[in-house]
């Protein structure tokens, strides 16, 4: 068994990747704050079971129709699960990005990412100590 196969480390890596991708999405929201008809996006946070394996809605994403010109996939939901708060402060141009909210989310995401990376580093150090190389 490789050290990379440990469920705890795998869950921490998944969480770090989610934070990195969420930061990219939040940055896109901020950079498009003046784009007409732009709607801010958000990622669904991954859930893990007791073993550290992804649980719930994690897995391959189903195809979804995002434009009227797209073909409908069979058995897939007809729309994305959208953030219900989106559009609360929609400007006349149709842009619904709230910069204060996006910056708060970005700061929280950075703090959570730092906590997960610290936990990952400490887990690796603990494993190295346990095998006598730390």
Secondary-structure blueprint:
Layout (H helix, E strand, L loop, with lengths): L6 H25 L15 E2 L5 E2 L43 H32 L4
Antiparallel strand pairs: 1-2
Helix pairs in contact: 1-2
Structural write-up:
There is one protein chain. The chain is mainly α and 134 residues long. Helix content is 43%, strand content 3%. The chain has helices at 7-31, 99-130; strands at residues 47-48, 54-55. A two-stranded antiparallel ribbon has the order 1-2. It is flat. The relative contact order is 0.18.
Task: Summarize this entry quickly.
The protein has 134 residues and is mostly helical. The protein is 43% helix and 3% strand.
Counting DSSP H or I runs of 4 or more residues, the number of helices is 2
- Per DSSP, what share of the residues sits in E-state strands of 2 or more residues? under 5%
**Mean pLDDT level:** 83
Order of helices and strands: HEEH
Strand pairing plus helix content: what structural class? mainly alpha
The strand order across the widest sheet is 1-2
Q: Give the beta-strand count.
A: 2
Name the features.
134 residues; mainly alpha; two-stranded antiparallel ribbon; 2 helices; 2 strands; 43% helix
């Amino acid at each position: 068994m490789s050290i990379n196969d440990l469920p705890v480390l795998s869950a921490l890596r998944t969480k770090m990747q989610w934070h990195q991708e969420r930061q990219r999405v939040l940055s896109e929201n901020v950079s498009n704050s003046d784009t007409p008809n732009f709607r801010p996006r958000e990622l669904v946070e991954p859930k893990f079971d007791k073993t550290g394996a992804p649980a719930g809605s994690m897995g391959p994403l189903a195809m979804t129709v995002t434009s009227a010109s797209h073909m409908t996939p069979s058995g897939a939901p007809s729309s994305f699960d959208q953030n219900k708060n989106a559009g609360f402060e929609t400007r006349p141009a149709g842009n619904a990005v709230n910069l204060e909210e996006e910056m708060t989310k970005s700061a929280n995401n950075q703090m959570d990412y730092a906590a997960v990376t610290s936990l990952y580093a400490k887990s690796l150090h603990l494993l190295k100590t346990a095998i006598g190389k730390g």
